[in-house]
DNA sequence: GATAATATTGTTCACTTGTCCAAATTTAGT
DNA sequence: ACTAAATTTGGACAAGTGAACAATATTATC
């Protein structure tokens, strides 16, 4: 419960081929991810991937028609792993809905401090700005990540209509993602993440449980002028 | 007040040289920024920058010793512009501290919907993961961006000690940055940004005004088990 | 252990990358 | 107009890029 680790890759077995081929396929993607995480997208050249995986350059072209296809498979494998993990997290038991929401927040924020997550997602966000495939796949991931958040909000605050719940879930999810650049792996506020977790839990619970239907729509703020 | 636009670049005039040289210098950085924003960091090649600015490749090497120096100057110019703008925002008049905090939140979230901001910052975050210079410069920027936030928190909740104020400011700032990938320029939730702004204002004000000293440190949560 | 499918190697190709430099052009002050 | 400094040009260079291919080695199955 305290430690929930998302596997690096979720690879759908290829049809046909030998066992060695499956190994090679996974090995290549694993090496590519290591390069991306340790040296950034600029290091993602076929030759560096080949060297990293102890293979010949030509062999990469056997597994992947093009470099673009390799990268797509890589992103897809990483993203699929997150999607699977999120589905598991949802079904984790918990007492009240509030407690389960707090657990979810903790799990996500702890994952953010992971080297892989801290390094991978900014690359993903940057790529999504210029690659429609990455854009779509990324939004698929976050859509699914918000499903459980959405349900918990519904349990805690049933009066809130569905569309407002969705926006609230987005706000909470986006808030947490924003911590990546500041309290992620080797980031200056990494040591303060436990306190950020407390703030996040407190703030999100308060927000979810006290937001009234329609409050989001009009600009009738509470304390505002 | 409604529209606060951060200039693209803040360039410190070079010493010596003709006026034409200064123009060329700025023109190159402007073209490089356009490429980065419109096509991503992969498009930042000297030849594309040269073409974009109607110059010869060799001329870029006259202005910048190396490609790395060009990119550093570019990032520095963009970041400096933000720093200058933040200093101006701080001194914007406002009634209560709450109202000024709400204004600040609105300004930042509106800037996030800008094409330049939505596209530039994810690139910056990704670069900061592997380039120490970018890492330092980025943290300088955010440190300064949080100064005004910090002061407002102190006004609203004077009982809160300085170190807890800092973490609270970080939480708020990071939360807003996280909206970039979801409600930024051409992002799926762009149209819902006004509602996200309402949620953010309400949530942040509530958080800042009700957080008690020491609450962050211990794990004595409010509604928790 | 022969055989066909699968995997790997080594090499070649055309192209792009950043850097460098000598020559030509433009600029500003005399 | 003359001049020296500043700017710009165009082309060269070695190194690296993704892609392609025939030749070789490995695997699983009979």
TrEMBL record, chains A, B:
Pfam family, one: TetR_N
Domain of life: Bacteria
Keyword Transcription regulation assigned: yes
Residues within the DNA-binding region(s): 45-64
Transcription listed as a keyword: yes
Keywords assigned by UniProt, alphabetized: DNA-binding, Repressor, Transcription, Transcription regulation
A GO term for molecular function: transcription cis-regulatory region binding
Annotated ranges, domain HTH tetR-type: 22-82
SUPFAM superfamilies for this protein: Homeodomain-like (SSF46689), Tetracyclin repressor-like, C-terminal domain (SSF48498)
InterPro entries reported in the protein's UniProt record: BetI_C, Homeodomain-like_sf, HTH-type_TetR-like_transc_reg, HTH_TetR, Tet_transcr_reg_TetR-rel_C_sf
Name of the featured protein: TetR family transcriptional regulator
Phylogenetic placement of the source organism: Bacteria, Pseudomonadati, Pseudomonadota, Alphaproteobacteria, Sphingomonadales
């Amino acid at each position: 419960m305290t430690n929930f680790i998302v596997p690096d890759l979720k690879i759908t077995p290829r049809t046909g081929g030998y066992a060695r081929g499956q190994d090679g396929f996974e090995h290549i993607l694993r090496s590519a991810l290591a390069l991306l995480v340790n040296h950034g997208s600029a290091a993602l050249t076929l030759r560096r991937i080949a060297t990293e995986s102890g293979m010949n350059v030509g062999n990469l072209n056997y597994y992947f028609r093009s470099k673009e296809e390799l990268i797509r498979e890589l992103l897809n494998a990483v993203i699929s792993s997150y999607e699977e993990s999120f589905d598991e997290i949802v079904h984790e038991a918990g007492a009240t809905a509030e407690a389960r929401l707090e657990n979810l927040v903790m799990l996500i924020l702890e994952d953010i401090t992971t080297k892989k997550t801290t390094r991978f997602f900014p690359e993903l966000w940057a790529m999504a700005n210029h690659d429609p495939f990455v854009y779509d796949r990324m939004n698929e991931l976050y859509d699914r990540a918000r499903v459980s958040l959405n349900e918990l909000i519904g349990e805690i605050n049933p009066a809130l209509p569905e569309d407002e719940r969705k926006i609230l879930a987005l706000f909470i999810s986006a808030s947490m993602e924003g911590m990546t650049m500041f309290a992620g792996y080797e980031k200056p506020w990494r040591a303060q993440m436990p306190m950020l977790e407390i703030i996040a839990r407190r703030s999100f619970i308060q927000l979810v449980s006290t937001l009234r239907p329609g409050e989001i729509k009009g600009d009738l703020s509470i304390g505002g002028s």
